[in-house]
Amino acid sequence: MLAMTSTTTDVKKVLFFIVFAACGLITMPLFLYYIGNQSSTVCPNYFTKVPNVTVAKPEKPILLIWLWPQGVKFDFKDCKTYFNIDSCVLTDDRSLYRAADGVVFYHKTIAWDLNNLPKDPRPAFQKWIWYNVESPTNTARKAGLDGLFNLTLTYRRDLDITTRYELSIVRSQEQFVLPQKKQIVCWIASNNIPGTGASTRLNYYHELKKHIDVKVYGQAVSGATFLRYEDYYSTIASCKFYLAFENSIHEDYITEKLNGPMVSGTVPVVLGASRENCEQFIPADSFIHVDDFPNPKALAEYLHQLNQNKDMYMRYFAWRKYFRATPHLLTTHNEFTQPICTACAHIAEDNTYNVVHDLFWWFHKNIAGHQWK
Fold first, then answer.
1. 341: which residues sit within 8 A by CB, 6+ positions away?
2. pLDDT score of 208 more than 90
3. Residues 6 or more apart in contact with residue 125 via CB below 8 angstroms
């Protein structure tokens, strides 16, 4: 009898707990609904309905040109027009300094005492871009610049933003038509300041012209012909060979002097970066290098030989089946457009941290460097 009473009691307890749990399951949603509709004075209400909000697309980064290169300005729309770059907001409005993602400083324009740099500290997120297109020979060491910049913009490959004229791959081959030639060798040169390194190329030219006729344009040589910007490419195209002579010899320092003949359908004769260095950017059989010859006389003899042998000459254009050279902007007004547009594209993608601690050790090594107007 006692056992039966105990069993009945246990069954009642189980039934009670089942009924209690069922009531809890039914009332809990009502309780949560009630709580969710009460305002909290301590933290946000996480139970209220999230409103339908459209998240705005992040704005383009701002690239501020603090110092225009030698005071030369260009239309900001040119980045889109010429290079299809529209990934940042370009401005020279200094009131936007604190909001700018990047700030460009052209080295030549930086004052020797640095008094034309921003007075306010650099925001932690901001990139200061050291912009320089000159070779180490023609770049002055200005005290106080180490540790200021965290991006570099120049022609060198071992830096952050490289600006140079590159060959592009041809997707659909087109038959190359050699332009009509009127001259054997031509050269466009305006700088003859010895301290810039120009004396090296001038000396080579004077020796070369003893053995082959060279038509010269520009201001570097007495008696040279004046050349308009609009006649630049057509003039180079009219010559079989073009003297792509740089004003100074440094690694990677390969400028528009090489790009001009590559675009125009003329064989460049290079004096500047080594042949090995040049071959890292253009095909080995697309140019002639002065270092391939013991002296200017030997070079002249080879040019005479090519002038008389069309098949040998045309081999220097075999690369055009696979690559294309892009014309560069010519006028002083547009001289600095491409590098700054390249910086615009870079700043839109760069989110890394970097500081250039030893700017001149990295760029100059053991070269003193000077600044010329």
1. 78, 79, 82, 83, 85
2. yes
3. 101
Nearest to 239 by CA among 220, 264, 270: 264
User: What does the mean pLDDT of the chain come to?
Assistant: 80
Per the residue annotation, which of 134, 166, 174, 207 is the catalytic one? 134
- Nearest-CA neighbor of 68 among 332, 346, 354, 356? 332
What is the β-pairing status of strands 62-67 and 102-106?
Answer: parallel
CB 245 within 8 A of CB 201: yes
* Helix/strand/coil (H/E/C) assignment for every residue in 158-201: CCCEECCCCEEECCCCCCCCCCCCCEEEEEECCCCCHHHCHHHH
What are the structural domains of the chain?
62-165+334-364 (no CATH), 167-327 (3.40.50.11660)
Query: d(Cα 224, Cα 243) in Å, to the nearest integer?
Result: 14
pLDDT band at 4 (very low <50, low <70, confident <90, very high): very low
pLDDT number for residue 48: 32
User: pLDDT tens, 251-281?
Assistant: 888 888 888 899 999 999 999 999 999 999 9
Is 134 catalytic? The answer is yes
DSSP 266-281: -EEEEESS-HHHHTTT
Proportion of the chain above pLDDT 90, given as a percent: 43
Q: How far is CA 273 from CA 270, 277, 334, in A?
A: 8, 6, 25
The number of helices, as runs of H, and strands, as runs of E, in the chain is 10, 13
- Cβ proximity of 270 and 313 under 8 Å: no
Percent of the chain with pLDDT over 70: 77
How many Cβ atoms from other residues are within 10 Å of residue 132's Cβ? 23
Burial per residue of 163-197, b for 16 or more beta-carbon CB atoms within 10 angstroms, e otherwise: bbbebeeeeeeeeeeebeeebbbbbbbeebeeebb
**Token code pair at residue 185:** 């060798």
Average pLDDT over residues 333-360: 83
End-to-end Cα distance, the chain: 118
Q: What is the pTM of this model?
A: 0.75
